[in-house]
Write a sequence for this structure.
């Protein structure tokens, strides 16, 4: 089962930075941005995470929590978060349960070889837990600003889930 626009996102729990776990249900009442990235400490993922870090105050003002997800182990996530001074939670999804829920594992090509990997994707969940927006095949440049605008509009009531 995969998530659908306008529909409730099923609850999940995953290992999180800070020696914790995070369940989606814990965030009910706040909007949630979940962004999936291929690999910690790689250039595009570092840029994207930095863009979210640098706009966190604006996301907070829009009642929106930021959560980053990759298949990296928790140690790699902790190192990535510390090195880049990320001010939001990263999840380790080694078993790919969260990736499967959001259908972000895709066949990719690298140096002519095919492999399964995370397709850079972002999802905006409204305060009631419904999927409001999704961005797939994300290009990093300018992406976080677009997500922030959507989060602000949703918070202000200018859009509804699925628009």
């Amino acid at each position: 089962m995969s998530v659908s626009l306008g529909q409730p996102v099923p609850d999940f729990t995953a290992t999180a930075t800070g020696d914790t776990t995070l369940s989606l249900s814990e965030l009910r009442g706040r909007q949630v941005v979940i962004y999936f990235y291929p690999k910690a400490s790689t250039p595009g993922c570092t840029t994207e995470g930095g863009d979210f870090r640098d706009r966190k105050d604006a996301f907070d003002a829009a009642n929106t929590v930021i959560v980053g997800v990759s298949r990296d182990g928790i140690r790699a996530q902790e190192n990535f978060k510390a090195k880049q001074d990320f001010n939001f939670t990263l999840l380790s999804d080694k078993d790919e349960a969260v990736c499967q829920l959001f259908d972000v594992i895709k066949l990719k090509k690298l140096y002519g070889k095919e492999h399964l990997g995370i397709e850079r994707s972002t999802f905006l969940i409204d305060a009631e837990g419904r999927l409001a927006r999704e961005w797939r095949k994300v290009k990093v440049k300018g992406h976080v600003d677009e997500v922030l605008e959507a989060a602000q509009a949703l918070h202000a009531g200018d859009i509804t889930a699925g628009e």
The chain has a mean pLDDT of 92. The chain is about 30% helix and 30% strand.
